[in-house]
């Protein structure tokens, strides 16, 4: 039989866990501050969100009700559903109660501050389950404060727009204050409420121990309305100490108890805001399709797309089939098969002069539009001219001309370039440069009508004048 002793509840035994309890108290304080800050963030989000009263997709927490207050009551037991050892072999059902403050940070996660009180009882029974007279029994009155994370599971519903049932799991930490009393196996009573300080002899008749407690649980929540819910849950509470039942065994164990409860939860906030606890993310995605402003924007976008498509169709329209769209065609209805320029007008190619074919000396040299580059067809004329100049020693003036497109100054420069191109060819063929004079006349002295393409082609020339 293992040895069982009464744990003395004095300052010496408490010093062993002072640091551990101080850390636990700091932990609860920090988590409480975090809960307050989270609520402040919710208020800021509310101010930053738009003034609309209808929930919008991706609108932030400010458009929902996120803070709630709950009350609960139920039964306690020294045993756990998951098993574990107890200093007493027979459980007794007792009572518990509590209040909660909750901040829903997302549709699936929230932080909850719980304050619980109640009593846990147990005793030693015989093989038939009957309590043995004068044997060990205890009852412990307790109060606790914990901060837990609440995770909603199965929150996505593809059948209903709004959830009506939420399943949740919880885990957290906090401090528990407790006061055991009872009867030892020898029949002697014990009561931790009566405490004598060994250092100064002072006494207390209402003394409570305190330890770290870890609550872990699960439950289900039923929506009675958007602001009221019914909670059914079960929590297993693990205590960082072995005197919760008033006894300390001869080997390292920790006490525990369970709490099954039912309660009501009231969500606070404007009636115009939905409760974030019951948000179905799938329904939120489809709600956007019913937004009137968005539908108007989509219709306006359709109209703009139609206008663009019509404009593209107009740009592609080519009634005469000449490869130039009607919007840019300056010569509509050109005959089929005609060669046209970028404006859709027929290009008339000039007939080569007879001199170009025979290579007669001193014939006019023709140039392309806006060009001073010699045509290969001009080489026979230039070669004949070079031969005559080299044999006779004549001096000639090379006169350059241009058609009337462009400015007069530009055409003057272009005519000089054309004359110099002819001079360069002749000098390279052996004609003395001193026998060649160059002069540009621009668009003056036309030999044909500059209002027609045929005339402009003839005016782009270089001619020779004997001196």
Characterization of this structure:
The protein has 467 residues and is of the alpha+beta class. Helices cover 25% and strands 32% of the residues. The chain has 8 helices and 18 strands. The protein has helices at 11-15, 18-48, 281-287, 292-316, 354-358, 379-392, 408-428, 453-459, and strands at residues 4-6, 67-77, 90-92, 94-106, 109-123, 137-153, 165-183, 189-191, 195-196, 203-204, 209-223, 228-239, 247-249, 256-268, 365-366, 396-400, 436-440, 461-466. Strand 11 (209-223) and strand 12 (228-239) form a beta hairpin. The chain is rod-shaped. Residues 1-55 and 353-357 have low confidence and may be disordered.
Rounded to an integer in angstroms, the radius of gyration calculated over CA atoms is: 52 Å
Let me know the largest β-sheet: 8 strands, antiparallel, barrel
Fraction of residues in helix: 10-25%
DSSP summary, beta strand count: 18
Query: What proportion of the residues form beta strands (DSSP E)?
Result: 25-35%
The ordered H/E elements are EHHEEEEEEEEEEEEEHHHEHEHEHE
What is the general shape? rod-shaped
The whole-number mean of residue pLDDT values reads 80
Supply the number of helical segments. Answer: 8
- How are the strands of the largest sheet arranged? 2-4-5-6-7-11-12-14
Regions with little confidence, pLDDT below 50 for 5+ residues? 1-55, 353-357
> Structural class, judged by helices and strands?
alpha+beta
């Amino acid at each position: 039989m293992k040895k069982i002793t009464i744990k003395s509840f004095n300052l010496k035994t408490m010093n062993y866990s002072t640091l551990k309890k101080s850390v636990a108290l700091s932990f609860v304080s920090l988590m409480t501050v975090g809960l307050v800050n989270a609520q402040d963030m919710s208020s800021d989000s509310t101010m930053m969100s738009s003034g609309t009263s209808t929930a919008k997709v991706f609108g932030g927490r400010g458009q929902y009700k996120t803070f709630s207050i709950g009350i609960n009551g139920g039964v306690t037991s020294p045993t756990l559903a998951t098993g574990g050892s107890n200093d007493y072999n027979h459980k007794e059902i007792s009572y518990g109660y509590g209040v909660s403050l909750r901040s829903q940070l997302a549709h699936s996660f929230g932080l909850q501050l719980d304050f619980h009180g109640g009593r846990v009882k147990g005793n030693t029974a015989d093989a038939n389950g009957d309590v043995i007279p004068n044997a060990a029994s205890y009852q412990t009155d307790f109060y606790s404060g914990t901060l837990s994370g609440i995770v909603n599971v199965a929150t996505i519903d593809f059948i209903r727009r709004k959830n009506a049932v939420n399943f949740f799991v919880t885990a957290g930490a906090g401090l528990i204050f407790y006061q055991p009393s009872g009867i030892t196996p020898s029949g002697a009573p014990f009561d931790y409420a009566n405490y004598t300080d060994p250092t100064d002899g002072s006494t207390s008749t209402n003394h409570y121990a305190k330890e770290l407690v870890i609550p872990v649980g699960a439950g289900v929540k039923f929506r009675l309305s958007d602001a009221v819910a019914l909670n059914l849950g079960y929590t297993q509470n693990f205590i960082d100490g072995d005197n919760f039942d008033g006894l300390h065994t001869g080997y390292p164990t920790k006490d525990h108890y369970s709490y099954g409860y039912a309660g009501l939860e009231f969500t606070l906030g404007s009636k115009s805001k939905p409760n974030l606890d019951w948000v179905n993310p799938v329904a939120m995605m489809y709600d956007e399709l019913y937004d009137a402003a968005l539908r108007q924007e989509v219709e306006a976008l359709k109209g703009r797309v139609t206008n663009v498509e019509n404009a593209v169709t107009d740009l592609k329209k080519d009634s005469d089939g000449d490869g130039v769209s009607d919007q840019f065609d300056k010569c509509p209805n050109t005959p089929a098969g005609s060669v046209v320029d970028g404006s859709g007008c027929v290009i008339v190619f000039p007939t080569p002069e007879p001199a170009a074919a025979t290579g007669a000396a001193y014939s006019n040299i023709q140039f392309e539009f806006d060009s001073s580059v010699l045509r290969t067809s001009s080489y026979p004329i230039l070669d004949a001219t070079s031969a005559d100049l080299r044999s006779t020693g004549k001096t000639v003036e090379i006169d350059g001309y241009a058609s009337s497109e462009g400015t007069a100054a530009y055409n003057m420069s272009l005519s000089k370039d054309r004359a110099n191109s002819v001079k360069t060819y002749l000098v390279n063929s052996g004609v003395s440069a001193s026998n060649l004079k160059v002069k540009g006349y621009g668009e003056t002295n036309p030999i044909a009508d500059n209002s027609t393409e045929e005339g402009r082609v003839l005016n782009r020339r270089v001619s020779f004048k004997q001196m």
